Amino acid sequence: MFLLNARITAMREVARGMAVISIAAPEIAAIVRAGQFVNLGWAGVFLRRPFSVYRADGERIEVVLKAVGRGTSQLLAMGPGDVISCLGPLGHGFDLEAGSRTAVLISGGLGVAPMPLAAKEASALGMRVTWVHGARSIDELCSESAGDEVIWATDDGSRGIAGTAISAAPDGDVVLACGPNRMLAAVADRWPEALVAVETYMGCGTGVCLGCAVPLTRGGYDRACKEGPVYRAADIDWAALPSHLSYAVTV
Amino acid sequence: MTVDMSVAVAGMKLRSPVLAASGAFGYGTEVPLLDRRALGGMVSKGIFLRPRTGSPPPRIVETPSGMLNAIGLQGPGVDALIRDYAPQWASWDFPVLVNINGESVSEYGDLVGRLDGVPGVAGFEINISCPNVEQGGLYFGNDPRAAAAVTEAVRRRTTLPVWVKLTPMVTDIGVIARAVEGAGADALCAVNTFVGMSIDLNAYKPRLSFRTGGLSGPAIRPLAIHLAHQAARAVRIPVIGIGGVTNAEDALEFLVAGCSAVQVGTATFINPRAIAEIHDGISAHLELRHLNSLAELPRYLPRD
After folding, report:
1. Which of A132, A166, A216, B188 would bridge A151 by S-S if both were Cys, CB 3.0 to 4.6 A apart?
2. Is B301 a domain residue?
């Protein structure tokens, strides 16, 4: 785990209101695994904010974000040269094992966050990667993708298949998913063995505060920041996990 | 010149006046980037006799300059603590105090009885101030007779240091402080979190599943300094200041206000190096003022 004062090197828009930020963090980039996250801090927020690592290229890591509240709006207003505090890599990512032939990646909205790295790791293990890439409409659909095949899905049919990413998804030897918790609950119904990256409020990100409790089907809670954020879908008690995180007043 | 940063709290010698507050370091086994030389000691995450699952999520919410938490004292229970954690503490070069919780006076006593003499357990912090449990906790902390009864029950079971952690949710903290002192406490910790609430304007309901939570962070610091100061004026035993300590200046404010040491909690979530930076900042302050030791720091503690 590293705590770095890291420079933002680039920022690009990938959908309406959604941007990818590149951060110079070579120590983290060298070891981060798909599904792991960094906890970012900057002047203006009190607690750090967790972000899945989107890509890593040896020198830089990337995270993807959207303005969902005051903090993320501040981060989006920053630019190349600005320095942020970066703690990571944190959490337990997707445990991909050699031997599977096909991997299906399912993302909803900002759930694209861990997918490019997951696609890279799955490809490196010899899997054929299909990324089913969903959002409400073409405007909110991240324009970037990876893998051998990409299936686009929008609720309003403005790009690709009309419907949810889940309804558009084929079966695969391994299914990975990330998106709103209610989408992941539906993934769990269809693929109990899927590996899903959940979203929770988070305090420390390092396992000590117990703020990011994830309710388990076997009873009790564990920590999204330590045992998670990636879980076997059937292991989560979806009815007890908040289906939606309320960051700010929405209409 | 090296500044002597050591402090003795009711006979317990600490190499630094900066301690990790209960809940900040868990059981000390998973602390990121820990810099031991700066750490005076650690108070464990609160423990009950039996395992507790804790509260449903959401458990935390950010607030202006602070956070609300309602973890609900999730923990493995005393058997697991003795089996899994205390043996590790026994080899550490700083003392670990166990934060003690109960639903009844006798449960507090029984828990301390179980832990007294276990290698690795250096003392106890009696939590009569947790706002996030249905039974016990805060109830014992805002009634001087109940606070004294818990302290006496614990005192009878151990000769190790007994620190009592006070709640700020009282009319006069001096009354509780004196009651606990009279019942045999070795030191006071002031203060635990304030009870707070935050409302989700999408759902029109509280953001925390427990409805209320404990407010911590810089938002409570001036309130906490005042309460720690009031407690220190009311008693002769040492007071350990807690509440929104983020940097060395914050810690020095508590120390000057009459505290012997400070505990740091929420700040460590944001800055894993907070305790080391606070320690080094206090040392630098003393050196700048040509003081050879922490003991020479002037205190503002007029007696009533």
Report:
1. A132
2. no
Task: Give the one of B54, B61, B202 whose C-beta lies nearest to A213's C-beta.
Answer: B54
Given a cut of 50, the residues of chain A with pLDDT beneath it are 248-251
* Residue at B283 is within a domain: yes
Domain ranges (residues) in chain A: 2-90, 102-240
CATH number for the domain whose boundaries are A102-240: 3.40.50.80
Inter-chain Cβ pairs, chain A and chain B, closer than 8 A: 107
Q: What pLDDT digit, counting tens, does each position of A193-222 carry?
A: 999 999 999 999 999 999 999 999 999 999
Instruction: Report yes or no on B271 lying in a domain.
Output: yes
Q: What angle do CA A232, A234, A237 make, to 5 degrees?
A: 110
Q: Checking DSSP bridges between strand B187-190 and strand B66-69, what pairing results, if any?
A: unpaired
Q: Which residues of B are catalytic?
A: 130
What does the pLDDT look like over A131-163, one tens digit per residue?
999 999 999 999 999 999 999 999 999 999 999
A72 touches chain B (CB under 8 A): no
Which range marks the domain in which residue B230 is found? 7-296
What ipTM was assigned to the predicted interfaces of this complex?
0.92
CA distance B95 to B5: 16
- CATH code for the domain in which residue B140 is found: 3.20.20.70
Is residue B304 situated within a structural domain? Answer: no
Chain B hits for A201, CB-CB cut-off 8 Å, are 57-61
By the 8 A CB rule, do A1 and B33 touch? yes
Q: Which of B25, B66, B203 sits opposite A46 (nearest CB)?
A: B66
Domains contained in chain B, number: 1
Output the CA torsion B267→B268→B273→B277 (10° steps): 40
Render pLDDT for B246-287 as a digit per residue (tens, 0 to 9).
999 999 999 999 999 999 999 999 999 999 999 999 999 999
Distance from the Cα of A146 to chain B's closest Cα (Å) equals 33
Q: A2-90 has which fold? A: Elongation Factor Tu (Ef-tu); domain 3 (2.40.30)
